[in-house]
Specification:
Strand content: 15-25%
Structural class: alpha/beta
Oligomer: single chain
GO molecular function: uridylyltransferase activity
Radius of gyration: 24 Å
Keywords: Nucleotidyltransferase, Transferase
Protein name: UTP--glucose-1-phosphate uridylyltransferase
CATH class: Alpha Beta
Pfam family, one: UDPGP
Number of domains: 1
Low-confidence stretches: 514-520
InterPro entries: Nucleotide-diphossugar_trans, UDPGP_fam
Number of helices: 18
Helix content: 25-40%
Length: 520
């Protein structure tokens, strides 16, 4: 391929983070027809909350499995107790053991040495801080926050999103970053393990991430500074563990492709802005994690890790949950995914649907599920479950799939007609793996506990500062204000419980040594 491209184009694309060798292999595979293409999802409806593949995590009080299966699973996972010591026989059926929520939390905590926490951390804050996109989210509310938005967006633009403020204090000052909170949360969970079982085993609950060529340098520098941060050392020193353990792989950029109108085979687009030998570089979608993070997944398996979480850096509700870990481990399913009931803020992403064959999968709002369909499902009494972009995978099931997943995940190639010209972009989405799994499990969770995501700064401001304009007639009492109050309550609980913070003089600050928290 390089022989058909000008040296100027190659230099430009390389300078913008494109791996030209990987791009050449991608084009060869694409033109050879090796990738799965997106096809319309045949939607029959939305799943009932009583569907056997859905666990109501929000109200879960217990979980039951056959006694023999529990005994086999406890032996397989080398858990330090017997099932009967934590469970009670089901009334009328002694062959079924029922584990109460407290027991599930203990089982999940005991599994921390076999678990790792993964972060999709490649995004920048460009769209997050874009005024036009924030205003379009809710124009009537944006005007209330516009003055504060300007100051916040100026400090976020061009930076990796993971190291921008995850919340704002009541006085409007910025709080800790998304990434720092995740690091602190992992130490909090390690402290839970130590309180329950004693000294920490080496390598417990490591973190891993996929950054991008655009964000990796700043993120690495940030992590280096965290190694001496007193708010991490306050927990790591008493625990006798490192303040952070992070494995990183870097996602390269992809070159834009020729438009479908230019025919086949596809080539690298080389006429950006009408200029000869000028290309465009774009991210290839977080679905590439299964290829890019493959060395990390395999390394973790060699370290004895069995279960890995994967989620977005900008979701404050994405934390280690021992109860869900226990249920997933006991279930024997391939993977588990978290969903919450859709709210007015959930304007893009995936929706759980039932296909014509009866399978549950995730369909994108907009491309696959129209607003009219969603309204119809609601009128028919269906509760719409929205993808929270949190996955929990069993490495014994995932590793055998890694080599084929880049080709089996649907490849989306979308034509564009913009100022830069007529070209196409290719991307893959992580959560479309759901449609490839034989036995997925779904947790129905509370949004305010597990999905406080900030795709736009306005969402962050609404969640952090819902009372700033509570007296405004255009905001007070509206469904959006009610939702923001609910999310703010969730934010308060997350900061004080999962992230080990306390409100002091009107500002959230990290606590030092703390008592073990109650089961989730």
């Amino acid at each position: 391929m390089d022989g058909q491209l000008s040296a100027r184009l190659i230099r430009q694309l390389k300078s913008e983070g494109v791996d030209m060798n990987a791009m050449q292999q991608f084009l060869c595979d694409l033109n050879a027809g090796k990738f799965a293409r997106t096809s319309p999802v045949q939607i029959a409806g939305v799943p009932s909350a009583m569907h056997p593949d859905i666990v109501d995590r929000a109200s879960l009080q217990s979980y039951a499995i056959p006694r023999a299966a529990a005994a086999a699973k406890f032996r397989e996972l080398d858990l330090p107790f017997q099932p009967e010591s934590l469970a009670v026989p089901e009334d009328g059926n002694p062959d079924i053991l029922r584990f109460p929520r407290g027991a599930l939390a203990r089982i999940g905590t005991a599994l921390y040495p076999k678990a790792a926490f993964g972060i999709l951390n490649g995004g920048s804050a460009s769209s997050y801080a874009d005024e036009k996109k924030n205003r379009s989210l809710c124009p009537e509310v944006f005007r209330f926050y516009r003055a504060h938005f300007g100051a916040v967006s100026d400090n976020c633009k061009g930076r990796p999103k993971g190291i921008t403020p995850a919340y704002f204090n009541p006085d409007g000052s910025p709080g800790a970053s998304f990434l720092f909170l995740k690091l602190r949360m992992l130490l909090e969970r390690k402290a839970d393990y130590a309180a329950a079982f004693g000294a920490l085993p080496e390598g417990i609950l490591p973190a891993f991430q996929m950054t991008s060529v655009k964000t990796d340098g700043e993120i690495r520098a940030f992590l280096d500074s965290c190694r001496s941060d007193p708010d991490l050392l306050a927990l790591s020193v008493p625990l006798r563990c490192a303040p952070l353990e992070m494995y990183t792989e870097v996602q390269p950029m992809m070159a834009a492709l020729t438009h479908s109108a230019d025919g086949l085979p596809r080539r690298i687009f080389d006429r950006a802005y009408g200029e000869k030998d000028r290309g465009l570089a774009f991210p290839g979608g977080h679905g590439q994690n299964f290829a890019i993070l493959a060395p990390v997944y395999r390394r973790l398996a060699r370290m004895g890790v069995r279960y890995v979480w994967l989620g977005n850096i900008d979701n404050l509700g994405y934390t280690v949950d021992p109860v869900s870990l226990a249920v997933f481990a006991l279930s024997g399913r391939d993977a588990a995914f978290e969903t919450s009931f859709k709210t007015p803020m959930d304007v893009k992403g995936g929706l759980l649907v039932v296909t014509g064959t009866g399978r549950i999968t995730c369909a994108d709002i907009g491309p696959a599920v129209s607003p009219e369909q969603m309204e119809q499902f609601s009128q028919e009494g269906g509760r719409l479950l929205f993808n929270c972009a949190i996955g929990l995978f069993d490495l014994q099931r995932l590793l055998p799939m890694l080599d084929s997943l880049p080709y089996r995940l649907p490849l989306r190639i979308t034509d564009q007609d913009k100022d830069a010209g007529r070209y196409a972009q290719a991307e893959q989405l992580t959560w479309e793996i759901i449609g490839l799994l034989e036995k997925p499990l779904f947790f129905a969770v509370e949004k305010k506990k597990r999905f406080i995501a900030s795709k736009m700064i306005l969402e962050n401001l609404l969640t952090s500062l819902p009372d700033w304009f509570a007296s405004e007639p255009g905001f007070a009492g509206t469904p959006l204000h009610t939702l923001s109050l609910d999310l703010h309550a969730g934010l308060h609980d997350l900061l004080s419980q999962d992230y080990g913070m306390q409100m002091t003089d009107g500002v959230w600050r990290f606590a030092g040594a703390r008592a073990s928290r109650a089961p989730c």
